[in-house]
Amino acid sequence: MRPKGLHRREFLKLASAGSVLGAAAALSPRGVFAAPAGVKGPIKIGYQAILSGTLAGYGEFHKMGVLLAVDEVNAAGGIAGQKVEVDIRDSTLKPEECIKNARYFVDSWGADFLGGVDSSGQALALAPIMQQLDKVIVITHAATEKLTEEWVFKKGVRQIFRICNATYHDGNAAAFVAKDFPITSWATVSPKYEYGFTCWKMFQETLSKLKPGVTFKTESFAPFGTTDFRSHINTILDARPEGLYSTEWAGELITFVKQAKEAGLFDKIKYVMFPVGAAMDVLEGCGMDMPDGIWISGRYFFRYPDTRQNNEFVARFHKRWSHYPAYVSETGYSSIWALKAAVEKAGSKDTKPVIQALEGMEIDTPGGHRVFRKEDHQAIYDVPWGKTKADPKYPFKVMGETKLIPASVAWARPPFEGPGTKPPF
Amino acid sequence: MRPGVAAAAWLALLAALCAVPFLSGRFAPYLAMRVMMMGIFALGYNLLLGQTGLLSFGHGAFYAAGAYGLGLFALRVSPHPILGLAAGVAAAAVLALVVGALCVRSSEVYFSMLTLAFGMMFFALVWNAREVTGGDDGLIGVVRAPVELGLARIPIERESQFYFLVLLLFALSIWVAHRIRLSPFGLVLAGLRENATRTAFAGVPVRRYRLAAFVVSAAFAGLAGALEVLLESGARPFMAHWTHSAEPILVSLFGGLETLTGPLVGSLFFIAMREVIQRYTEHWMLAFGLLLLVVIMGFRGGVVGALGALLGGRRPAGEGR
Amino acid sequence: MQSIVHVCLAGLSSGMFIWLVASGLTLIFGVLGVLNFAHGSFYMLGAYVSFALVKALSPHFYLAMFLGPLAVCAAGFVVERWFLRRVYALELPYQLLLTFAFVLVFDNLVKIAWGAGSLSPPSGLGPLEGSVDILGRNFPVYSLFVIAVGPLVALALWAALERTWIGRIVRAASSDREMASALGVRVPALFTGVFVFGTWLGALGGALAVPYVGLLTPGMGETIIIEAFIVAVIGGLGSLKGAFLGALVLGVLSAFGTRFFPAFDMFLTFILMAAVLLWRPRGLFGAA
Hints:
The complex is a heterotrimer.
Chain A: H1 8-17, H2 19-27, E1 43-49, H3 56-75, E2 84-90, H4 95-109, E3 113-116, H5 120-133, E4 136-139, H6 145-154, E5 160-162, H7 167-178, E6 185-191, H8 194-210, E7 215-222, H9 230-239, E8 243-245, H10 250-262, H11 265-268, E9 271-274, H12 280-286, E10 295-296, H13 308-321, H14 327-346, H15 351-358, E11 362-365, E12 368-372, E13 379-380, E14 385-389, E15 398-403, H16 407-410
Parallel strand pairs in A: 1-2, 1-3, 3-4, 4-5, 6-7, 6-8, 8-9, 9-10
Antiparallel strand pairs in A: 10-14, 11-12, 12-13, 14-15
Chain B: H1 3-23, H2 27-52, H3 59-76, H4 81-103, H5 108-128, H6 130-133, E1 139-140, E2 147-149, E3 152-154, H7 159-182, H8 184-194, H9 196-201, H10 206-232, E4 234-235, H11 242-255, H12 261-280, H13 284-298, H14 302-312
Antiparallel strand pairs in B: 1-4, 2-3
Helix pairs in contact in B: 1-7, 2-7, 2-8, 2-10, 2-11, 2-12, 3-4, 3-5, 3-10, 4-5, 4-10, 7-8, 8-10, 11-12, 11-14, 12-14
Chain C: H1 2-32, H2 39-57, H3 61-82, H4 92-114, E1 131-134, E2 137-140, H5 141-163, H6 165-175, H7 177-182, H8 187-213, H9 221-235, H10 240-260, H11 268-279
Antiparallel strand pairs in C: 1-2
Helix pairs in contact in C: 1-5, 1-8, 1-9, 1-10, 2-3, 2-4, 2-8, 2-9, 3-8, 5-6, 9-10, 9-11
């Protein structure tokens, strides 16, 4: 689809307010301001996100972030002086659809860059193809650590970069937060697929090291598409753990929260962690049904960091779309600016120089200061954990008390294995 | 059509398919490969649905068996593509033999639901056997090793090379399906479709014939699945899901059940239409659904039947069979 | 004990939704001989339309729950009167394809009308808020209500089919179309009526599911239609008694599976169906 959502007039208003230019300046990488000559336009970026089925809301939020960024980048002179064009395709949840889209973008549409991808399975399916397509892809949602560890670091598919945080945040960082709770037993209700298994494993391993003696009482994995969590909830209540860790996400997390509340789970278990609970769809969907005092996090939460850049981004986003940006909105938005920065730094839109420019590149984004780790192309940035509480300004719960586990601490797992590397434990 | 004309038409199609990689970039040959794989899947499927009159909801499982058969063989035994394809087809056929033996005594919708049940059990098995199958991540990293044929060594690593292997197997599949349709075996299957009771009275062991048709069609599915793994370098559990099992049904009905060409034309339409629609609207489901409605309400014998009726004045097939 | 009772209750309540969808499916198959794949879409539409009405008519929760499914009947009417009627003569695959096309259309229309994201009704929608203590653990009052509605619908259906004049006509038409027609029954109109009524049952299931599931998504009908198919087949196609029993068994069995045999939870439903069909090839109460 052509970007239908562009409202030229609305957008000019914004531009005249100068906020766009401010954002552009803040987003430029350090030391590089001038547009280099020699880049031929337009710069075409092919995005894909899930736009159909039960998770289609994620694709919509993603689209909003990308379209906003494209308008702003073009208003700020495009990428290296060239106009940016995006096409956004429905990735569905099927890996073969994702591969087909990527091939279409590169081989038929003529994309210079790719972006998006929600599911881990899709990202992994795409990985072996990326070398052949030989274009840089910025992953904005898929969280599997295997993508960056196996494919980028070990197998050397250097075309892949990830701008969102990964399972390290959901698993390891959660354990760093959990170690300070005055409890010693945990259980989980998590998705019955690799993402759920991996995060729970990371959480257990890390927490066991940080807090010896902690026990894990039971685990109940819910297949994809579960709408009735009542039996899972019974499993947890029977095991009587002191803490509950759950990587359920999107609609399934909303359903889980509501059904757990009905069953009185939150009265019996005082320490509950939802690593992706700070997603906007979940917070809006749960509304006031989300209990207070739940520890949540995500890939980004619109109130953090409290910087001018982020606050202005949130304001522009809200004005344009009447929503607060979800994390996929921020990662989608920032991915465009990251590509702009990389192309301008490289002075070229060719794959090789852009990869070199992106490796180790630092950039200030609404989500904070990001560094693309050279070894595995994972963007390192900090996202806080926070305890839910009501705020009269919003019709949903937000983070109250927060706790920040620096990414440099929690994410220093592999690929830094073997001699000469520094694993955290 | 006279045999001479038909042969000429097939040769023209073959020539056109041979020309595709030379005439365009990478995307058209890629789509052509996907069409051919879907074509193999649907062609085999139609031996069951069109020829024998059995509606299976579980053929995704055989597609997946072929895919995982090749994938596991390539990753653990040998990367030889031809041996891998054989392993995939064999895996699909063996699975079909077991499943089919349990299903063929049922008929109509009960047969469909039994195949659905076994297909989804296989899906759950693939999903849960993480150590072997990689769970929902799937098997990843299958490479296209060269075809070793004693003296010769044919590389298929590049897509333009692999394309011709797909084309060869596609042509072979059409030829085999064609032979089966015309063989005494195929005629018995058609008899089963028209009237199973009467055929049984004629002394035909109905279940055994149904089982044979089931296994043969599953072998085609396995071949298609194995080829997809070579193309996309991986196998995924959703290949076994019922939503994937529905695709050859869709394709066969779309093209028409009566003819050999129906499923092939259906495959082309299915993939090409979706591709075209997606370029113009994000509401591809709506557009595709409406298109399906038009095809069913408009020409009930599928696209090929309607074209045949138009050209040769035949009665649109499908009604009153 | 506490756990077993609660798992049982959870299974019963989820089984009732499957029953409501399966009852419409079964009725339509029994009378019209059509397997309606779009029946899950009526469930979805029932949920969306009722949710919209609950908001519009607040606080008249029951009124919305009553009117929502009625509105969806219009969709059922269109499907039957202008499309399905013309393919009765065709075989099962064509009917499935036609109704599958409607699944795509309805899913996409819902996406256009209500947005692609999920909708989430706030709790406290109706008067049945809150939970009761059963053996020391909370159980939602609303789920108890659902458990009561299922058998009531079953009873009403039975009474309507067995004890009323129109029920007799429906049964006559379903066992012999031509004979009924010869006796002066307007079969096409009757079929439309039955289809619309079946639509209403599916949509009612969707409406009731709004507070129960707590989430509305485009495509939410796809899981339940497969379950409803399974239940209808286990019970024996066309048998309402069988569908009711099948739904109870499926609901309770999956709840127990999830709680006590989690390794098999993705298999259980299908093992159950295969076992029943291998034992009785036409389902529990299917006509031979």
